[in-house]
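FW: tagging you since you asked about this chain on Friday. Here's the raw sequence from the shared folder, copied in full. Didn't touch anything.
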Amino acid sequence: MEKLDPRALTILSRLEQAGHQAVLVGGCVRDLLLGRHVHDYDIATSALPEQVCALFPHTVPTGLRHGTVTVLLDGGSYELTTFRTEGAYLDHRRPEAVQYVQDLSEDLSRRDFTINAMAMDRHGVVTDLFQGQADLQAGLIRCVGNPDLRFSEDALRMLRAVRFSAQLDFRIEARTLASAQVLAPTCAALSAERVRDEMEKALLSPHPEAIGQMMDLGLLAHLGLREHPELSPLSSVPPERLARWAMAKRLLPQLDLTALRLDKKAERLCEAAAALTDMDTLLACKQAIAEKGWEAARLAAVLNGQLPRMEEIAASGDCVTIPQLAVRGNELPGLSGPEVAQTLHRLLQHVLEHPEDNQKERLLALLKK
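HL: got it, structure written out here
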């Protein structure tokens, strides 16, 4: 098991010394037990938010409505949430209200999956009320309690089930899977950003083709994503954000990156790279750079396995963009307006095939012909 973060241990100790119960919860416990690197340590405590703020000098009220305070300690940030139960979910995403409790078991029982519903104290003792450790051993994603209830409360949990399956190489338990298929239409109520984030985490996992399972279950039907081709080519590109999104766009032309709220630059690059499928020759790679720019062409080269050619072009110093031409627009005799841009484009097309001609005298001589 990975060693516990000393700053997290300090927080647990300080809370205990003040007479409160405090434990690590959720994904950090799961990852500690799996021997995976822990990115974030979440802490649940019997202390109320105002008591947490009184104990630690540097806090941020990140979610007071839901009992969450972020403690800043020695350069690290740690979310502390008071033990709670949750009221009715009115939008398939968030509870209408929360109620603080003093019983850890009540807090754990509201969580999504058994592997995320365990707690660990500062001595490494695990509280496991729902056989989470057994499911870790079995490689199983299973809801805490009734999956219909869990998914009705929060539709995002269905996407998370598939995402965890992809990240951990676990299978989804049969009843949990069947419930997701029935309740899939409720995903339409989720924000595009939440759906995008779960898709992206799946895309960056060891099994990016899992987005196909999201589609098969109907979780992305509201985005027009239903039937899909073979998605194994996703694994052929590096687990880089833009590379995986661009390959997804190539394989799924109906994928609407605007609807998913991808940032504008990422959307532009992915759209361009997805369309650049012909890069089998040095000239084709140069033309891709000339047409779409270096960033989009390099991304396309990642998808097409042509990075060495891109590096060859960069090292050669060959002219592949209009600013690299040896002649400027104001040096073209007798031309103005749109004619200038058209002529520079024609000259560039010539130079792409004949890089040795990128000399001012030769280019001007070409114009006379």
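FW: Residues 282-368 form one domain.
HL: agreed, and The radius of gyration is 27 Å.
FW: great, closing this out.
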